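From the methods appendix. Each design record in this collection lists the tokenized structure first, followed by the designed amino acid sequence. Records were kept in a plain field format so they could be parsed without special tools. The example shown here is representative of the layout used throughout.

RECORD:
FOLD TOKENS (360 positions):
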């Protein structure tokens, strides 16, 4: 039997980026000019055709400063107001002020088409409390037909399904822990963001507490959903590391430090190995129960399991007393990298800096 000749392939699809992402702010406070805010679009579309925001701590003010320093940040020359007029929707991980203040402050002066705010019920309820005509004017509506409002609340359900939020872009939302407050558990989410045509994804975490500290582990569900896709359809993860090494568990306030982050990446590596061995695990909606596994996975087994994965570290909390030339990020990210190398996980660790243009 003769096989037909192979079709020539002009460009390997994996060599071409799927998304362009610009970092409007990547800090974890207290510097209000550099708070969590990311803008992205499919690589094959133009910025003026539509932009998706991922969290919105900083916004037009920060972008104006970035464009002053780098007028070609978006390849063509645009003003900050023009860029925000291209915005079609926001994906919001949780309603802490360092993730929403830019959205709130700019809501009264929006130009361009109506913008959807995609978030879970809890986060949309929190936003409603702000757009209440008290803390801020009521500028958002639940009503699709209510064109007077420039912002439209759009519910994301946590049903493990992908929800289309923009042409060719869908989002799967998984709840994660972000510490305790007086009423008990406080939650955030992780988003799997998929280009529907290219079937390529990236994973973006809201602020997250380590599963090792949480009353009910939930990040394991994200790792189990991610493991089968690594690295061919999922090769970029954005995750926080707010604190440096040495920060004790009782002082984490719902955030990661390098040891906990790398332990979490170790759990991901374990899930990757388990998947490759054919031991499938499903995403759980109930708490995990510890049980003995028949084939334990050793540190040698997970060596290199995350080869081909880029892990972008964000949300490092700055100490404004320290040297402004040495931001906390430059202390935390090398600590994470050293631990990843010690465990031989294989992931590439990258610091997210304000003003970066990242191709995914
Ligand atoms: Zn937070
Ligand atoms: Zn935060």
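DESIGN:
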């Amino acid at each position: 039997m003769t096989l037909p000749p192979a079709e020539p392939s002009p460009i390997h699809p994996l060599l071409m980026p799927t998304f362009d992402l610009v970092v409007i702010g990547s800090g974890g406070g207290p510097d209000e000019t550099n708070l969590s805010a990311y803008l992205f679009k499919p690589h094959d579309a133009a910025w003026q055709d539509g932009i998706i925001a991922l969290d919105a701590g900083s916004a037009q003010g920060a972008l104006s400063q970035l464009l002053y320093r780098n007028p070609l940040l978006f390849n063509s020359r645009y003003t900050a107001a023009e860029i925000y007029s291209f915005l079609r929707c926001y994906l919001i991980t949780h309603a802490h002020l360092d993730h929403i203040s830019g959205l709130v402050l700019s809501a009264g002066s929006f130009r361009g088409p109506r913008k959807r705010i995609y978030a879970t019920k809890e986060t949309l309820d929190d936003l409603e409390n702000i757009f209440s005509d008290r803390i801020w004017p009521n500028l958002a509506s639940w009503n699709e037909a209510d064109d007077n409002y420039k912002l439209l609340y759009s519910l994301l359900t946590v049903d493990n399904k992908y929800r289309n939020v923009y042409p060719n872009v869908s989002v799967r939302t998984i709840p994660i822990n972000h510490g305790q407050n007086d009423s008990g558990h406080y939650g955030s989410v992780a988003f799997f963001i998929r280009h529907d045509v290219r079937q390529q994804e990236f994973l973006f975490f809201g602020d997250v507490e380590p599963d090792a500290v949480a009353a009910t582990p939930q990040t394991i569900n994200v790792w189990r959903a991610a493991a089968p896709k690594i690295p061919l359809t999922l090769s970029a993860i954005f995750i926080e590391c707010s604190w440096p090494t040495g920060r004790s568990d009782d002082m984490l306030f719902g955030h990661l430090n390098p040891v906990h982050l790398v332990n979490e990446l170790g759990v991901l590596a374990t899930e990757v190995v388990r998947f490759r061995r054919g031991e499938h695990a499903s995403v759980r909606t109930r708490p995990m129960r510890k049980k003995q596994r028949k084939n334990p996975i050793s540190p040698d087994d997970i060596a290199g399991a995350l080869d081909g994965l880029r892990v972008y570290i964000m949300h490092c909390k700055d100490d404004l007393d320290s040297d402004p030339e040495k931001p906390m990020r430059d202390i935390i990210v090398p600590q994470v990298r050293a631990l990843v190398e010690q465990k031989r996980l294989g992931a590439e660790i990258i610091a997210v800096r304000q003003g970066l243009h990242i191709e995914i």
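APPENDIX NOTE: DSSP finds eight helices and 15 strands in the chain.
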